[in-house]
Structure formats: C-alpha cells, structure tokens
Amino acid sequence: MAASNSVLGLYDTPDAGANAMDGLKSAGFALGTFDVLTGTPYPEGAFGEYVPQHRLFRFPFFGAMVGLTLAILFTAGTQLAYPVVTGGKPILAIFAMLIIAYELTMLGAVVATVVGILFESRLPNLNLGAYDPRITEGYIGVVVECEDDRIEEARGVLQTAGALEIKTA
Amino acid sequence: MQQRRILDELAINHELLRGNLATPKWWLPTVLGLLVVVLFGFTLMGIMFNRGLGVTGLNRPVYWGLFITTFVFWVGISHAGIMISAILRLTQAEWRRPVTRAAELLTVFSLLTALFFPLIHAGRPWRIFYWITPYDFARGIFPNARSPLVWDPFAIGTYLTGSTLFLYVALLPDLGVLRDRTTGWQHSFYTVASLGWRGNPRQWRLQTVAGILLSALMLPIFVSVHSIVSWDFAVTSSVEGWHSTVFAPYFVVGAVHSGVSAVVTMMALMRWLWGWDNYIRPEHFDALARLLIVVACAWLGLTFSELIFGIYSLEAPERALREMQMFEWPWNLLFIIFFLTGFAIPVPLWFFKRVRNNIAMMFWTSILVNIGMWLERFLIIVPGLSRKQPFVFTWDSYQVSPLELGLLLWSFAWVLMLMLLFSKFFPLIPLFETKESQVFTTDVKIGRVNMPAVIRELD
What we know:
The structure holds two protein chains of two kinds.
Chain A: E1 5-11, H1 14-26, E2 34-37, H2 58-81, H3 94-120, E3 140-146, H4 151-160, E4 165-168
Antiparallel strand pairs in A: 1-3, 1-4, 2-3
Chain B: H1 9-16, H2 18-21, H3 27-51, H4 66-90, H5 100-121, H6 128-132, H7 148-181, H8 184-193, H9 201-234, H10 247-274, H11 282-312, H12 316-327, H13 331-344, H14 346-350, H15 353-356, H16 359-386, H17 402-425, H18 431-440, E1 441-446, E2 449-454
Antiparallel strand pairs in B: 1-2
Helix pairs in contact in B: 3-17, 4-5, 4-9, 4-10, 4-16, 5-7, 5-17, 7-8, 7-9, 9-10, 10-11, 10-16, 12-13, 13-16
C-alpha cells in the first residue's frame, strides 16, 4: 500500500477508542491500515483490533542451532587444532564440550529471541507518524494509515466516534 | 492483594518518574560519595597491577582468597533477578510487578561486578584474553575447553548478555513514556533508546510473549551458571571440602537465598529513598519473606548434606578440615557468625507476620543473610586451601590484606553507584506493569465484602 499519511484520533475512554475502530472497519478501511495505540497493555480484542499472527517462536530454535554450531566449532576445532592431553582427559572430552555447547546454544536462543521480538514488533522505527504524548498518560489513540484522497474520510470517522483531537502526519 | 491502591496512569507516571524527571536532593551527594570510593578502588587495582599480587594476602598454599570469595558472592546475588523475575512472570504472580525490574537490574550490575574479581585476581588481567579466546593461531595457543575456568566465562557471558537483553526488552515501553515526557537531548536519547515504541496491540502482545519466552530461556541459564561456578571447586579433587557432588544445587540454592535477600534490601531502600509507598507495600515484603523461608530451609538442608557427606566418609583429611572449619580459631568464630546471620537469626524471625510486614526488620534481616552468605563462601574457599598438606612447606594461613578489603568495599560502592546512575535515567519500577495491574484488577463484591480480584487472559 502506498500509505503516505497517518491520521490519529485521541480518545479519553477505551469504549470511544473501540467505537472509532468499529467506525473505520465499517467505512471500508482495510484491516492492518488502522491500529490502536495505548500506554497500557489491554486484553486482546478489547478494541476489536486486528493482530496478525506472529512467528516469534521460530527465532529461538534458529538461534539455538547457530549457537550449538559455533560451540561445536569452538570446542572441537580448538582442541583438534592443538591436541595437548591435559589431566588425562580425551582431546574431545564430551562432558566439557557439552557444558560450553549448552551455554552457547542458550545464548544463541536468547539473542535470536530478542531479534525476533524487535523484528515482529516492527522495531526500530523512529518515525512515529501521527502520535500524541498523551497516549502514555492513559488516552487512547486510533491511527489510520491512508492515501491523500481518504484523509478527510478518516478524519470524519474518527470525529464521529468522539475524538478529543485529531492529528495528521 | 489486599493493599491495592487505585491510581490513574498520569499519577503512576508522575510518581514513578519522580527520580528521572527531577533530581532528588540526596542523589548527587550520594553518587559523588560513592564515586570517591569507586575511584579509590580503581586506584587500588592500579597499585596491584603495578606491584603484583604480592600486595594481597595471597600466597602458598592459599591462592584463592577474598577476590574469589567476592566473585562467588556477587554471582550469587545476581541470581535474584532471574529467580524473582522469571519464576514470578511464568507463574503470573500478581505481586511481581514492582519487584521485577529491580531484581533484573541487580542481576546485571552484580554480574558486571563479579566479572571484575577473576580479572583482577589474575594479576595481569589482559592475559585473560589468552585464556578464553582462540586468538593466536601462529603460536598454537588455544583455550582448554576441558577446564572449568574456561566454562565460567561462557556461563557468565551468556547470563550477562541474556539478562541485559531481558532487562532492555522489558524497558522499551517505559522508554516510550520517558520520550513523551522529556525535551531536548533527553527526548532524542529516549527516542532512539525506545526504538520508536508506539504501544500498538502487536507490540503489547509481543511484550507479553517476550516476558514469558525469555523467562523460560533464562531459567535454565540461571541454574547452569552457579552450577558451573560451583564446579570451579567441585572438580578439584585434591582439595578437601571442595570435591563434593552436592555443590551445584548447594551453590544454586545458596545464590537464591542471598539474591532474594538482596532484592529485599534494595526494595526497602527504594521505598525509603523515593517514597514509593503506593507501589512497594508490606505485602511484597511478606511474600518475599515467605519465599525466603522456603529457600533458606532448602539451603540449610543442602548445607547439612554437604557437611554430613564430608564427615560420614571417615576420611581423615576431610574430617580434619571440618574440625578446622568449625572448631579452630578464627574459623570457628566465622562459622558461628555465618550460621547465626545466614539462618538462625533471620529465618525464625520471618515466621512472624509482624516481622514480615515490618520493612525495617526485613531490611536488616536481609542484610544479615548476605553477611552470612559472604562468610559461607569464604569458609568454603579459604580453609580448604589453608589446611596443611603433604609437600606444602608454607604453613602460614591466609591474612586478608587492607587492599583486598578496600576492593571488597569498592564492589559494594560500585554496584550502588551503578544502581543510582540507572535510577536517574530509567524507571526502577516498571510503569507498564503497574498500569497493566490497574487495568486487570477490579473489586468483586462477595457477600458483604469487597475483594480485589485479578482478571487473567486465557492463552
């Protein structure tokens, strides 16, 4: 979608925010082009919002595999490259390798999870578009991404739902 | 949750960002005072690097002394964060909300402090890199993956990286709040740090999932870290008192005991210093004290197991060591102080509700626990090495030098200073968690009683 503008309606109650979301749906704005912004996590579906399925759970598995591979390369590679017997232990001491492999596997999983959280949250994105600092004071923001020809329509829908203020960016 | 207060988002922002948007009068003098101690500590390190480890009390046969004791102590404290934060998140315990950030923060800063001690203990810290990184292919020097001293950096590195990321992810929504409340360079800083957080349902959903997923990933790491630290000792077969199979769970539970106590200390300080009576309430101390009773009893059981397995084998050197730890001067005095402060005084007191709800009492008993837990590590590490061994002709025991004591003091000042610096730029109590609690909590009338009830989403 060639969305070039975002319009924000600010509401003082969750009910008014939910009404604005319903209004946008009724007006034919496509799912995914409008969203609700809050300073508090509300129960899922409180605003009748569309939340696409995330794929976060794939990330730790991928990270764990990368971590495990690096661990095997580190432990086996370095010991085989310079095979000195210490403490009567085998060159490839499985128990010792498992400890390092465990730590690096978990490290890979954690790092990949955090990357996944940011990716799935669509962060970083320093361009906030239409936004109001009062959202983090308890107000509800309903934001619509639309092309120039639908700005007035979006403003109308947000105003009808009782917006205290409407901003465009 | 009988003591719940109903607060709106504006009031929560105002109260919890009090230390960030304005500077309390006590803050600067305290930070400067701590900075003096910190600089003094770094000077001591410089002296030690310049003149060598001879300025410490370390000598044959005691090569591990106060530095390694303090390393184990701070790794132990670091276990508070994940224990409190991850377990309480996974079990969706409502009272976790004001506790999690302080606990996670304590993890990060105490681990950072712990890392210093093996580094400075090496005498020439820059040589540590030869030991853990496969750097010099021409000389063919590689890390020895079979040594527990190489397992340590991997375990602590993983834990520190994971804890820091865990802390940062949970901080994102609050950074967004700070971005909206600041101007100038601070606004620019928080804009970048919050990564453009807006608070749409997708971001909130992922924030919730992240809390649970990262908790589940961090818990096994938390268990492995202190297990690996314990193996620094337990796989050393030649030192009595160290070579014990029970060491891994013993160290982990001991770490939780000292770590949760440190969280209690920190929460009492937060309540007193910032006046957060509405957020850190006696019910939180009550819940933590109940948890501590369970942990302390488990720790006592493992302490007893470790002792009885040592004595029951009837091996002469092992029995001699235990006799020395408990009955010979000065170890006997330290042993008594350790037992009294680590268990015998605080735990019976926590059985009384009046004590659990008294913040001053909880503060002092939690400090007692950590005095005891530091001594426990000292009593594990030093007597085992001090005892006269065959073919060891230096029979002097270990005398802690003033320089080592100075660096012990430095470690406390360093952690406190980092905490206070953090508190100036970031909220110590998670705002969004507090606000969420207000949304998800309501009063339910049952008969003639109004009860606070928590609504939970089925997922």
